[in-house]
Specification:
With 333 residues, this protein is α+β, with helices and mostly antiparallel strands. Helix content is 23%, strand content 32%. It contains six helices and 14 strands. The longest helix is centred in the first third of the chain and has 34 residues, at 2-35.
């Protein structure tokens, strides 16, 4: 009896110790994750994504960035804190920076005789200066498959006949590309987007039913519904070593230059890699592509809270490839 009591006490102590250790480990992991995640106050890393050749013999350097903040969207005017060198400081780079990772945000065209020179993008944000160095080294050459892979449409090192056949959507802004509007006055913005329908938009419900029928027959497929599919996606940990993206066409307008608050109605899908489960982002686990308008025209109302000159950036993205359009807006009192 005495031996059994001691054994039970030891077992309880061991269990308590194990639980305590597990709790401490969980807290430590949480603290470690939080220690590397910030809402504001951090810097931005400019990123050289690669280069591609143009039909006229010139080359395009492709740039993006990593904003280390989850919420802060810094505004950095062209000048010593946001510049290219050598040559012109303004090469069409953004001055308004969205949160987190933004890939292939803009391109800088250089002449055919560029040779082995470097083009340097310097960014200084929240007191920290960083640089991206662009060259024509062969290892940095980019094609459509590289873009689709880097943005998450394809798994690392994979491709398919469909992905190789995909061509970018085409953005055509309807109306003037330079406009004037008053503060607080909604500006209607219509954009025609055409696309080849590739890659085939992801339909997670249909994919789950097909797999269930393959594995367990028609009865298993009949048990699959939207609720249990989305619950499984919600609870499933990431299964890819690279960023994952939902394929499907969407159009999104964002501020590219201009420091005032701008509101888009309806809210736009995010063009930055917001991987949180319920984010309105192709990189979010539960995101589904929005319906495509019958006439291909996306309609949004834009409202500005402060006067100034703004550049709005519209991106159509089919999951694998993208195309951009721009509108300059002079906002008056």
């Amino acid at each position: 009896m005495y031996y059994q009591t001691i054994t039970a006490l030891r077992a309880k102590s061991a269990k308590a110790a194990a639980l305590g250790l597990a709790t401490l480990m969980a807290l430590s992991l949480t603290q470690l994750a939080n220690a590397n995640s910030f809402t504001r106050g951090q810097h931005i890393e400019p990123a050289y994504e690669g280069w591609r050749p143009n039909e006229d013999g010139s080359f395009s350097f492709m740039f993006g960035y990593q904003n280390e903040n989850w919420e802060e969207e810094p505004d950095v005017e062209i000048g010593p804190n946001n510049m290219f060198s050598p040559g012109e400081a303004d090469r069409g780079q953004p001055t308004h920076f969205l949160p987190r990772r933004n890939r292939f945000t803009f391109e800088v065209k250089v002449p055919a005789d560029w040779g082995d020179r470097e083009l340097v993008w310097t960014l200084k944000v929240n007191g920290v200066e960083r640089k991206a160095y662009a060259t024509l080294k062969q290892d940095y050459q980019v094609d459509n498959i590289v873009i689709a892979s880097e943005t998450g449409s394809l798994g690392a090192g994979t491709s398919s006949p469909e992905s190789r056949s995909n061509v970018p959507p085409v953005v055509t802004v309807q109306g003037d590309e330079i406009r004037t509007v008053r503060v607080g006055e909604p500006m209607n913005l219509k954009t025609l987007v055409t696309d080849d329908g590739l890659p085939t938009p992801d339909d997670v419900l249909e994919e789950a039913r097909e797999f269930a029928e393959f594995a367990g027959g028609p009865l298993a497929a009949a048990l699959v519904n939207a609720e249990n599919v989305y619950e499984r996606r919600l609870m499933r940990p990431p299964t890819r070593v690279t960023v994952g993206k939902v394929n499907g066409l969407y159009m999104s307008w964002n501020v590219y230059r201009g420091a005032g608050k701008v509101t888009f109605d309806p809210p736009m899908p995010k063009v930055w890699e917001d991987t949180r489960t319920s984010a309105n982002s192709p990189w979010g686990a539960l995101w589904t592509p929005p319906p495509i308008p019958d006439d291909g025209i996306y309609d949004v109302n834009v409202t500005f809270d402060e006067p100034g000159t703004y550049v709005l950036w519209g991106r159509a993205d089919d999951g694998g490839l993208y195309h951009d359009g721009y509108v300059t807006v002079n906002v008056t009192e």
